[in-house]
Amino acid sequence: MASNPGPNDRPNSYPYANRRAFWDIDLGSTGSCGGTYLCTAVLGYDGPTGIGTPRGIRGLRR
Fold first, then answer.
1. What is the DSSP letter of 8?
2. Where are the domains of the chain?
3. CB neighbour list of residue 15: distance below 8 Å, 6 or more residues apart
4. What is the pLDDT of residue 61?
5. Predicted model pTM
6. Are the C-beta atoms of residues 62 and 14 closer than 8 Å to each other?
7. Torsion over CA of 29, 35, 41 and 44, rounded to 10 degrees?
8. 52 CB-contact burial (10 Å; exposed 0-12 / middle 13-18 / buried 19+)
9. Which residues pair with 45 in a beta bridge?
10. Element (H, E) at 28
11. What is the pLDDT of residues 21-58, one digit of tens each?
C-alpha cells in the first residue's frame, strides 16, 4: 500500500518528512517497561517510534 522505495531513497526518513501524518501520543507508557525513557510518551516525542502513531499510510511513503 505504501509502495516500494526508489533505488536512491532512504525509507527510514519518510516518517520524519511527513510528521503531520502521525498522531502525537502525548501520555502513557507500555505496561512492562516500568516507565523508562524508551517506553514512555510525552508531547513531541514517543519512545518506541520517536514520532507517534501513523494516521494511515501517508507517513510511510515518499
1. T
2. 11-60
3. 21, 22, 49, 51, 54, 59, 60
4. 76
5. 0.57
6. yes
7. 180
8. buried
9. 42
10. strand 27-29
11. 888 877 766 666 666 777 777 777 777 667 777 888 88
